[in-house]
Amino acid sequence: MAYPRSDLAAPTPTAGAAAPTTVKIVVAGGFAVGKTTLIGSISDIDPLRTEAALTEHSVGVDDAGDRTRKTETTVAMDFGRIALPGNLWLYLFGTPGQDRFLFMWDDLVRGAIGAVVMVDTDRLEQCFPAVDYFEARQIPFVVAVNCFDGVAKHQLEDVREALAVPAHVPMMYTDARSRTATKQTLVLLVQHAMKRLAG
Amino acid sequence: MPGRQRAPQPDDPGDVVYESGTIRPYAVTGGRTRTKGELLPIEALVSVVGRPAVRLSTEKLRIIDLAMTQYLSIAELSAHMHLPVGVVRVLVGDLVEEGHARVHGAVASSYNPATTLSVLESVLDGISAL
What we know:
The complex is a heterodimer of chains A (about 200) and B (about 130). With about 200 residues, chain A is α/β, with parallel strands linked by helices. Chain A has helices at about 35-40, 105-110, 130-135, 155-165, 180-199; strands at about 20-30, 50-60, 65-85, 90-95, 115-120, 140-145, 170-175. In chain A, strands 2-3-4-1-5-6-7 form a seven-stranded mixed beta sheet, sandwiched between helices. Chain B contains four helices and three strands. Chain B has a domain at about 40-130: Orthogonal Bundle (Arc Repressor Mutant, subunit A). Chain B has helices at about 60-65, 75-80, 85-95, 115-130, and strands at about 45-50, 70-75, 100-105. At the A-B interface, strand 1, strand 2, strand 3, strand 4 and helix 3 of A face strand 1, helix 2, helix 3 and helix 4 of B.
């Protein structure tokens, strides 16, 4: 990772110290839209990569005739962690963008504050599955249009119209490389989630 | 810009492919993909009760080592051990059952910090102050 961060967060001794409360935010969007960059811009730790191995029962045909068999695939997922005052740890999980992996999001998204859907307006359609997903599950989300090279190519309202997201869904420009912009994006999401909770 | 069409419910797994690069990771769990009780959230934190006197598998010992001095989430253990989340869940579930580890977080309870206003306020204040 090319961005400075504090890698020297002291390990928390588990003896005597109360376990932190953990919360998570999901960062979704298409391939190479900047999910890991955004996570890395604010994470206390270098973004880590983990693999979720998916085991699905599927019906296959082989020499023995029709039978149900297990197939397996792995999906890489990058994530980071931010320690906040009040013994809180916020995890940021970047989700695989491809829609064929949507079914694994249930597991990831369960208990999340909400989601940031990252958008590259040159490849707008890549975020459609994520928008569909969070909308259908009524999970709070904000749309963050990543400005590559700091250039906004489209008006937010045009993006809103193309995405067909209702007016109450917050939208903003962001710059995944910028800690400040990432902060603002996360603040917008948490505020939105709080509003949803209060309403 | 091409617009979004309202999609059907995204429940269909679609075509999941077998990747030959995947070693059979569930070998270390004896083929089990689930553990008893609730599915541990990937952000659930693991801590170690003490160094066990009994013999444990290499993978379980690695979890003990990693979580001995710090709280680590299922996701972090998975990343450090290069094992899929599902495998780590099973191993951690075993360690908890055997009395070697504890899991912290919204496990087997209705409390969800993400829908608790006071927690969200703390998160908001915390991020704003970064």
